[in-house]
Sequence to fold (105 residues):
Amino acid sequence: MTQSTRPTPPQGPDTPEPVTCATCAACCCRLEVLLLSDTGVPRRYIATDPWGRRVMARLDDGWCAALDRDTLLCRIYDRRPWLCREYAEGGDDCLIERGCLGAED
Ligand code: SF4
Ligand code: SF4
Fold:
């Protein structure tokens, strides 16, 4: 999931746009993120879902409460949940999320 920094990837006239968090509107940060282990997520970003599970809180716009809305960077990158760490940039789930939100042409 979304990086701690957003470097600009190399581009050229014949270079297809790479699948990278640097060019993504943090699509996967709208998914429900279960907290499966203690990585130090601040309590203010933790909610309880209807089944009583601890999850990342989301705001009314649908994105994770820990996402910086201006930079689209994770504000708790070093303490992000295990599921966020395992989410593969460019992986199948990532591509699905980007397509669902119109990030893919
Ligand atoms: S959907 Fe993929 S490219 Fe976008 S922020 Fe998540 S991991 Fe990065
Ligand atoms: S904790 Fe960070 S990486 Fe995980 S969903 Fe929230 S903003 Fe995205």
Summary: The longest helix spans residues 92-100. The two ends are 20 Å apart (CA to CA). The longest strand covers residues 46-48.
